[in-house]
Each structure stands twice: as C-alpha cells, then as structure tokens.
Amino acid sequence: MASLADLDEIPTKRARVEDNTEHEEPSQGSDQHIENLVVRFRCLSICKRMLENSYETLTENSSLYGLLNDLIVPAVQSGDHLLREEGLHCLGLCCMLDKHLAQHNIKLFITCIKHGHEDLVKKAIKVFGDILLMYGVETMTEYLSSSEDIHQVFEFGLDHDNTEIQSFTTQALCKLMLFNRFEDDELLGLMILLYFFPKTEVDEACNTIHQCLAYFFPVYCYSSPAHQKSLSNITLSSIKELCRVHADLAQDETMVDPKTITEMLADWNDPEKLQTARSKDPNYIEGDDEAIFQVSGGLAIETLELIYAEKESELRKILCHFLLRLRLEKLSNEQMKTIQAMIHEIDQVK
C-alpha cells in the first residue's frame, strides 16, 4: 500500500496530512532500525496518554504542534504497521482538540478505512465516528469530494467480513443516530439485517454487535417520531429480505424465525410506546402525538398492498402476522376506511 501522508504546513501552523506522497523507511533488517521503531512507538504511547487527558485546544497549547509535526505525522507516514496505527490514533486525538485539523484530515481517515489493512481500518473507523459525533456530519461533508462518502464508509464497515470492523462501525453509527448527528434509512436497514442475519460461529465481536443493537433499536425508535418513521420506511423491505434469507438457511446456520422478527419490528413501530417515552419529557405537550399514530396506519396500508401483490404464500403469512401485531387503535377515519377496503379486496381475491 502506498504511504498515506505528507506534511503540509499551513498558515495557522496546523499540520495537514495528504494522501499521495511516498515516504521511504530505512532498511528493515538493522538492529538500529528496530530499536528506533521501539523508541518511536514508546514516544507515541506516551503522547497518546497525554492527548487522552488533554482538554486544551491546539491553539491554546502550542507545544502540541511540535509533537504533531515531529512525531505523529511521521508515524502516520511510516511503512511500519504498528507505528502507523499508533500515529493514526494520536492524530485522531489531535483532531478531537481541533476542528480545522479534523476537517483537513477527514479524507485521510476515509482512505485508511477503504484501503488500509484490517487493524488500521479498526483504528480509523473509531476515529472517524468520534470526529463526526464531535463536530457533526455537515461540518465534515464540505471537506469531502461527495456527500455520499460518509454513507459509503459506513456501508463498507457494516458489510466487512471482519466482525470487529462490523462491531466498531455499528457502535459508531448507533451513537451518531441516537444523538441525531446522522440519518440514513438504508444504513438503518443494513443494521436490522446485521442484527437478525444467520450466524455460524459467534465470537466476542458478534456478541458486542448484538448487545449494541439490542439496546439501540428500542431506544432509537421510542426517542423520536422521526426515528420511528425512519424505521417504518425500511421495515417491509427488511422483512422480505430476512424471509428470503431464512428460506435459504444452511444446516449449520442459526437465525431467529421470521414471525419473531416481525413481532420485534412491530414492537419497535409501536406509537404507544413512543408516546409513553415522550410523555416523560418535561417539554412534552399532550395532544402533539396525533401524527405518530398515523405512521403505523401507513405501514399497515403498505403491508396490505404487499400482501395483495405477493404470490408466495409463506411470505404472505408472515406479513399477515406482522399486520396483526401493529397497533392501529388511533388511526384517522381515512386510513381506517382504506384498510377496510383493502382487506375486503384481498378477501375477494381469495
């Protein structure tokens, strides 16, 4: 892999790491070189601990510039994997202390995620998520070549074969979505698939993903009408995909059965639970929640349309089971009439 960075001093003395400059390392075989690597690694470890306990911005602590230029950036440029990982970690900590430094280096972290070795990807995805959480997605988007870059990075992480990378990506996305820093229905759908997808071997990272998402989905869906609407947008497509996966399940794979999946999705789409959670907010105004009950009505209508169009009997059964689990007590008269008419039409087809 080509080296990742070169130092470019800018007027404010902030270091910026570029993506395309070669950097040569001394011969790997010499004892002196190995000793030099050990010393540099120890220095980076000390620097990392210091940065982790620093709350001053870089503009308030000029001594950090020397560390950034003389120690951290050369480590990121290094051909040694361990030095590069530790250097990237330190650079990420510096970015947490300086927004402009983060903006100028956000592309570097994306490059590391897309093209780095697995251990570097793990470091980079954690830093990437922390930067977006700290400064917001919009603040970083203007420094990217495309607004789709962030989506592509998270999609890459969720689809990765390495479960640790999936875990770090999932944790980053959960934090961003819970704090309303980032919304993406497609990625939310991928998180649902990741939660329910069949597993052959379960490692610690898989357990972390499952625990994280088990906490995330109910908290996310009951914290905001917009969140629950986002979930409803991808509920039916997720059910269809998970039913297809379950039908093709291999003998050595385990997966939650589709009926249980639909029950959980219906529960997360429950407007009553959203209203109950919102009523605990001191700023809650009674009567403001009328619209949230219409979301489940719209979802019921979409489900009936899919049942009407679907020819595969097993999927229709699953969809009917899902429909029966939806809370439909407080729908508008118009929605109730539409639902009744569609049920009558489906009965006529039978």
From TrEMBL:
Pfam families reported for this sequence: Cnd3
InterPro entries given in the database record: ARM-type_fold (IPR016024), CND3 (IPR027165), Cnd3_C (IPR025977)
Keywords noted in UniProt: Cell cycle, Cell division, Chromosome, DNA condensation, Mitosis
GO terms for cellular component: condensed chromosome; condensin complex
Domain annotation Nuclear condensin complex subunit 3 C-terminal: ranges: 42-327
Region (Disordered): 12-31
Primary residence: nucleus
Biological process according to GO: cell division; mitotic chromosome condensation
Comp. bias intervals (Basic and acidic residues): 12-26
Coiled coil (UniProt feature): none
Subcellular location: Chromosome
Identification of the protein by name: Nuclear condensin complex subunit 3 C-terminal domain-containing protein
Organism: Rhizopus stolonifer (Rhizopus nigricans)
Lineage: Eukaryota, Fungi, Fungi incertae sedis, Mucoromycota, Mucoromycotina
